[in-house]
Amino acid sequence: MTKRSTWISDWNPEDVKFWEATGKLVARRNLIWSILAEHLGFSIWLIWSIVAAKLPQAGFHYTTEQLFQLVALPGLIGALMRFPYTFAVPKFGGRNWTIVSAALLFIPAIALVYFVSRPDTPFQVMLIAAATAGLGGGNFASSMANISFFYPDRMKGWALGLNAAGGNIGVSSVQLLTPILVTFGWLSFYMAEPLGTAGYLQNAGLMWLPLIALAVFGAYRYMDNLTTARSTFKDQVVITRRKHTWVMSWLYIGTFGSFIGYSAAFPLLLKTQFPAVGVGIAFLGPLVGSVSRPFGGWLADKIGGARVTFWNFVVMGAATAGVIYYVDIKSFPGFLAMFLTLFVTTGIGNGSTFRMIPSIFREQKLSEVKGGGAEARAAALKAAATESAAVIGFTSAVGAVGGYLIPRGFGASIATFGGPYVALEVFLAFYVTCIALTWWFYLRRSFSGVGSTSLAQARV
């Protein structure tokens, strides 16, 4: 039996015959294992959102603001890691980098196991341990950039939405499973006693180790590298000179930045604002946000990404105003309903904004070679695929800073003003800017496939 090559040189998903005969099966196989690796990346990235809320019960004497810092710092590190992770796929290959990035998750998982069992750990040391969880945040950028090469343009919205949702739901998984599994002493084979009333908190790290090993093996055995995705750093870094790279990055702070930031802060926000409720229901937010993401991509495929994004930000603004109101009157049912609405809209917006990116760069490149023949068109499509993949990773990196800014914003607002109101008002103002930018660049005069009119009418 001939050993399967890990590099594929002949890849043309836009060719319908190729896609039906070969492409879709290969793409689906890579998507499945990409989702698993990304899912674990998100789980590790957001693991401190639950662990930090339980540290006081485990005997750690950290202030509320310090706990929010433990939640926030992995968000910042994850955002920074996404820049090199984005450029790693075209440099090393999607399969190769998935193996490496999945294996790196062992570091934060093992660090957590070690330090949470030592209540005398200085805060700065614990902060460094939490920071290593940011390695999981980088996985999204490389995973999305990689999968974008496997699928034809007509299916990118759904494929990227599904890939992202599979990763995003890792946030919900860690927030659902951690409170349950820390009660099982048999998982913590080296400890006879629980950590105060927090249970066996080290299980929060132990539970992921076999799954990380599975992801590394699956990527090694079943994923592929595409030679068509190879490009130099110089070829990719050109995206920083594109106006729409920065516009879409700003919008993605509003969608994904909100998702990851609210996901990180939600357990502690519940604990501080509604202490009688507990953090057990925190997983519901990222769950509905993750599930709604493919719907956002699908809806954008059908009616246009800019239309979906515009109205989505309108609803996000209204839901934020609702959260402010219900926190003020201390109504938990209203608070939960508005926050879950916020999470749903972050998911829909994540899907719609990422659907906009391939359309924007495809139309731009095709307009540059209009009338140039089939060869010029093929070159333009390849360049568009390369740039849009790089932009997807780049915007995901910029957008991820919300994972740091939102928890830090809540922590500072509570510490200074006694509640999260000021932070929420700032977030509301930001959504207003996103509404204005979406209308100005993509609805006032829209892209084909992004809004409603042709590229010739667009302000590029």
Walkthrough of the structure:
This protein has 460 residues and is mostly helical. The chain has helices spanning 16-45, 47-54, 64-92, 94-103, 106-115, 123-131, 134-150, 156-181, 203-206, 209-222, 233-237, 243-273, 284-303, 305-328, 332-368, 374-399, 402-417, 421-443, and strands at 7-8, 225-226. The protein has a two-stranded parallel sheet with strand order 1-2. α7 runs antiparallel to α16, α12 packs antiparallel against α18 (421-443) and α13 packs parallel to α15 (332-368).
Between the first and last Cα atoms, what is the distance in angstroms? Answer: 52 Å
Fraction of residues in β-strands: under 5%
State the CATH class. Answer: Mainly Alpha
User: Can you give the helix content as a percent range?
Assistant: over 70%
- Rg over CA atoms, rounded to whole Å, is 22 Å
Which H/E pattern describes the elements? EHHHHHHHHHHEHHHHHHHH
Total discrete domains: 1
For the secondary structure, the number of strands is: 2
* Residue windows where pLDDT falls under 50 for at least 5 positions: 451-460
Mean pLDDT: 87
